[in-house]
Specification:
The protein has 819 residues and is an alpha/beta fold. Strands 24-25-26-27-28-29-30-31 form an eight-stranded parallel beta barrel, surrounded by six helices. Strands 16-20-19-18-17-21-22 form a seven-stranded mixed barrel. Strands 1-2-3-6-4-5 form a six-stranded antiparallel β-sheet. Helix 15 (520-523) links the parallel strand 24 and strand 25 (531-535). It is elongated and about 95 Å long.
């Protein structure tokens, strides 16, 4: 602690009169003294280092030191005069005043006391480590990281600073950076007084992540506000590239509740391109960017154990700050791995300022409106795709800008298209109707600011600046899962707002049909009782894309073109079948996590042979059937010599979800099971692969979709734990109608008396044997009278497509009130 004896500013305590304080001398209550960044580092060193979190040591110059500098040189009067006609909406005006303000501070020498205090503290660091030890010098505003404002990135950061003169120069630049254009603009918009905010500087021992990797993590899912997932990003080298969006990093997601119970729930892993890494520069600059070798780009930067360790730290940090603030406080955390010691460190932590501030009382959904004249299966083809930020849709004219010095011509409502953004772009980002960048991941600057502004953005598009043209009209959709899509033209879309207060809860459970794991976190916000149908076919067709037998018998593949494509998709895997298990487990795991601890009924694969044949390598392993709808599908495949090897991969994936991820809310469901004995054969096959009914509370349901499932329902009830009525197939087979034939489509009707009697018989048999029974089909939402019929029969649950859940919930509540 270094103080000024002559207390010209009349501070009351020795801490407040200090020019320099060590991190372990400050805590989160000291934000007015050392700024949010430094106060948080001190808080973690004192409170969380004992719990195993590594935080590099260092010291901070204080707000008092900054004010001592400003007042001793008489700078405030000059700055007030300079800002008397400030207009942050006028980019030229803002630039001129910002430049003059920074010049004023930079050309004013530090007072002797400030200079000596910084030099003495740095010398102490050097004595602990080595002469001219390398440090990070970071600005930290005294109002930084308040709950309703994110000052992150408003001021400057300098990495690999060495020597007393180097540290003093970096601190001086940090003081001046209180008046960068973006910081001035931000404060003015947020209503902060420029002169009530001071600038503290953190000087922290560097973590040698230039020799390893670094990144950002959030203790909350950043797009949907899903509280139970931690998001971690990683790239090689120093962390500035991830923060600035210069690279597309790896992304990992971990489910927090079961992580804290000792499980290993990594529910998503995405490989980033990681083309650049920032390393130390031995020349005149502190750092430089170099290309990452192709062999390293194609690997994940973190091991699974490191991912889990970081996620545990995110939970500890979130829990600590939530206790300190006496309210839920999700966190935005920067981490780094030292390439010399291989240790992980947390180098910054601040409250997340977007999702944590949102009201949860209204469910707002965006949806593209499809042209009625176009087949429902065909959607417009996107011009380009990237990572979706937010869940909104916007549209407008492209304004392509590659140089931040040309931003003054940007007009409100245009769509900003650029390579990447940094804080210098912020004066125009607030005017954009959407933002598109070539580079960056979900924790980059463009993503963070877009979330804060409530503007949809798509980052990491790759070639947006080459594909899109100035003045081109486009639609930006972040409402179709985690993949953001850019479409040509102004496509029609709708916005629905549903108040979530006072919604009735029903005795009949209202479940949801979910296929796309990327939408699961968002869908879980809709009031529900779980998932009645999680479709593995969507995961296999869209995320895996390869026939499981083609992976098992990879060496026997005949088609060289197919083999080459499989090689490319599975480049990370020497063990090809493991790719199938990993991807399926992550897809199922993400859906199960989104709705945990509510039940998630996972239907094992139910492709027909012609659909399986369309998967990569599938034609070599699939027969040509005259009527695949009634052929080799569902349960019949699982114990058959021609497929049971592949079914074992499905079992391994589900076993991992339940046993390793701890998501025991996942319930297996067997489709198209023709006889009770076939059911027993399937259960035996599952047991061989580690999924034994009843062990670890494993339940196995059966689809009730064949007349024989109804006729022998009592026998099926002695084999399975529950039923789910598949109304499409049951209607088709009861009425003898090919549901794909337009010639007899008029006769297809779930409300047919014969179908209703089948449903009644199934419900009665299930109830007799105390088995759960639900329905997963669209009929209850299409026909309110059918929903009424199901409720009257005493069905346990109704599972619906997400857009029908709230409407049907209201209908069911009405029926229940009348009964």
């Amino acid at each position: 602690m270094v103080t000024v004896a002559n207390n010209t500013l009349h501070q009351s305590s020795s801490k407040e009169r200090s020019l320099v304080l060590w991190f372990d001398e400050v805590g989160i209550t000291d934000i007015p003294i050392v700024g949010g960044k430094n106060a948080s580092l001190g808080e973690m060193i004192q409170q969380l280092t004992p719990k195993g979190i590594n935080v590099p040591i260092g010291f901070a110059t204080t707000a008092y030191a900054y004010r001592y500098f400003i007042q001793s040189a008489g700078l405030e009067e000059k700055l007030r005069k300079l800002f008397s006609d400030l207009d942050v909406e006028d980019v030229k005006n803002l630039r001129e005043r910002g430049k003059k303000a920074r010049s004023l501070l930079l050309h004013t020498p530090f007072p002797k006391e400030v200079r000596e205090a910084i030099a003495k503290a740095y010398q102490t660091l050097c004595e602990r480590y080595n002469p001219d030890t390398d440090v990070a010098v970071r600005s930290s505003a005294t109002a930084e990281d308040l709950p309703d404002a994110s000052f992150a990135g408003q001021q400057e950061t300098y990495l690999n600073v060495t020597g007393i003169e180097g540290v003093l120069a970096a601190c001086h630049k940090c003081f001046a950076s209180l008046f960068t254009d973006r910081a001035i603009s931000y404060r003015q918009i947020k209503g902060f007084d420029h002169f009530s905010i001071a600038l503290a500087v953190g000087v922290q021992k560097m973590v040698r992540s230039d020799l390893s990797c670094s990144g950002v993590m959030f203790s909350i899912e950043t797009e949907t506000g899903f509280k139970n997932a931690a998001l971690i990003t990683a790239a090689y080298g120093l962390g500035e590239n991830v923060v600035q969006g210069s690279v597309n990093p790896d992304e990992y997601q971990v489910f927090k509740p079961t992580l804290l119970e000792g499980f290993h729930p990594i529910i998503d892993k995405r490989l980033g391109s990681k083309e650049l890494k920032m390393v130390y520069d031995d020349g005149s600059k502190f750092t430089k960017n170099v290309l990452v070798p192709e062999s390293e780009r194609s690997k994940f930067a973190l091991s699974d154990e490191e991912i889990l360790q970081l996620a545990r730290w995110a939970c500890l940090i979130e829990d600590h700050y939530s206790r300190v603030n006496d309210s839920y406080t999700p966190m935005d955390i920067e981490w780094a791995k030292d390439g010399i010691t291989n240790e992980l460190f947390v180098v910054q932590a601040r409250p997340e300022t977007v999702q944590s501030q949102k009201t949860q009382n209204v469910l707002r959904t965006y949806r593209l409106i499809k042209d009625e004249g176009v087949k429902s299966s065909s959607s417009p083809h996107p011009l380009l795709t990237g990572r979706a930020i937010g869940e909104a849709i916007s549209q407008g004219k492209v304004h392509l800008i590659l140089d931040v010095n040309r931003i003054e011509h940007f007009k409100a409502g245009e769509i900003l298209v650029t390579d990447r953004t940094d804080p210098d772009w912020e004066p125009i980002m607030k005017r954009a109707s959407a933002i598109i960048t070539n580079q960056g991941g979900r924790t980059c600057h463009a993503a963070i600011i877009a979330r804060e502004l409530g503007v949809p953005a798509i980052v990491g598009c790759g070639y947006a600046t080459k594909i899109l043209n100035n003045g081109q009209e486009i639609t930006v959709s972040c409402a179709e899962g985690e993949e953001g899509r850019v479409y040509a033209g102004l496509l029609p879309f709708e916005v629905k707002e549903v108040p979530l207060e006072n919604l009735p809860r029903t005795r009949t459970q209202i479940l949801m049909n979910v296929g796309n794991p990327q939408e699961a976190f968002s869908l879980s916000a809709i009031p529900n009782d779980g998932v009645g149908l999680a479709r593995t076919e969507f995961i296999i067709a869209n995320h895996i894309q390869i026939h499981p037998m083609a992976l098992i018998h990879y060496d026997q593949l005949d088609d060289k073109f197919v083999k080459a494509k499989i090689d490319k998709i599975t480049a990370l895997y020497d063990d090809k079948p493991q790719y199938f298990v990993d991807k399926l487990a992550q897809g199922i795991g993400r859906i199960a996590a989104a709705f945990y601890p509510k039940p998630v009924i996972v239907r094992m694969s139910d492709f027909k042979s012609n659909e399986y044949a369309n998967l990569l390598g599938g034609k070599q392993f699939e027969p040509e059937e005259e009527n695949p709808m009634l052929g080799w599908r569902g349960a019949a495949r699982y114990y058959d010599e021609g497929y049971k090897e592949a079914f074992s991969l499905e079992c391994k994936a589900l076993k991992r979800v339940r046993d390793e991820m701890g998501l025991t809310n996942a319930i297996a469901m067997i489709p198209f099971c023709r006889t009770p004995n076939e059911g027993r054969l399937v259960l035996a096959e599952m047991a061989k692969n580690g999924l034994k009914q009843g062990v670890n509370d494993l339940q196995v349901y059966v689809m009730c979709e064949l007349p024989n499932n109804v006729i022998l329902a009592e026998e099926f009830a002695q084999v399975f734990d529950g039923f789910s009525i598949g109304s499409n197939d049951l209607t088709q087979l009861t009425l003898g109608i090919d549901r794909d034939s337009g010639l007899v489509a008029r006769l297809f009707d779930e409300r047919s008396e014969g179908v209703k009697r089948m449903v009644t018989l199934a419900i009665t048999a299930a109830k007799k044997y105390n088995r759960k029974i639900g329905i997963c089909g669209q009929a209850p939402s299409d026909y309110p009278e059918f929903a009424q019929f199901l409720v009257e029969q005493g069905i346990d649950s109704i599972s619906l497509n997400p857009d029908s859940v709230l409407k049907t919930m209201l209908e069911v509540a009405k029926v229940e009130q009348q009964s």
